[in-house]
Predict the structure.
Amino acid sequence: MAMMRTMAATVALTVLSASAWAQGNPVATPVKFSLDWSYQGYHAPWTEAADQGFFAHEGLAVTMDRGYGVTDTISKVAAGTYDIGQADINALVKFDADNPGRRVITFFQVYDMNVNAIMTLKRTGITKPKDLEGKTIVSAEADAPRLLFPAFARANRIDTGKIAWTMVAPNLRDSLMVQGRGDAVTGYTITSIFNMIGAGARRDDIVVLPYAALGIDLYGAGLITTQAYADAHPEVLKAFVRAAIRGFDAALQDPKAGVASVLKRDPLLNPAIELDRLDMAIETAILTPFVKANGYGAIDPARMAKLVAINAEAYNVANPPKPDELYTTRFLPPQSARMPARR
């Protein structure tokens, strides 16, 4: 079974474009794309873009692989192992400050709202951020919610010296907390909640302290690439964004079909859980009021400046990138072509 999961999770999708042939270009442009984590329901926009031929229509031959956490994806994109990745853009502030010669940028905002949170169970008595003092939080070193915790602590006046940490592999974090080997976890709501349910927790016993509602109202995951790749391949990024928008619309209009597309890559996933996961991502992070009004990928410069400032303070970064060095909107189509389809 483990071998089946490994094989399914590392499936690569290479799609050749019939339209590229018709236009006199017999070879589609190869693009290597890394997800942020193993295949889950919220990846439906990407699998739909592949399965329904949206990438192919744009003349792209996309090889898509699972990811191993935000830090890993960013590092691999920076190294050129992947051309494009999906990763929480908060982690780019420190990375770009530490690696000015390998700057990574975001060119399409996937999550208008971050899904970072502290999650626990009612039995711990934790109902607000200050209740974390004196408790043990289970986390993983590379997780964006762990990296952003200092900012969350500052916003909520948490004495971090009164918190103990148990660092484990990401796939063990949520189940260990459910088993009582910790009081809370840092994680993505769209990941940890469903992992906790899978480990035996009841949904109504799970307590969520979302960063976005508790002082850390920041953007979440986005499509990332290097500045060098963006400069060299602007048409590829424009084509990828157009295909992504069609993939998002497909997943939003028919989530069940989107989840079925994800299950082709990992048939051992639970369809009901993945559908709930996708719906949660859509409702809380993707189809926000701002996106409904301004379209996919829209950015509020003031909010992006806030993201840079909060992360710079959290990581003690003395030379953070300027907001317009962290993101670009020049690869987006006109707003009229980015408005979400109605659900």
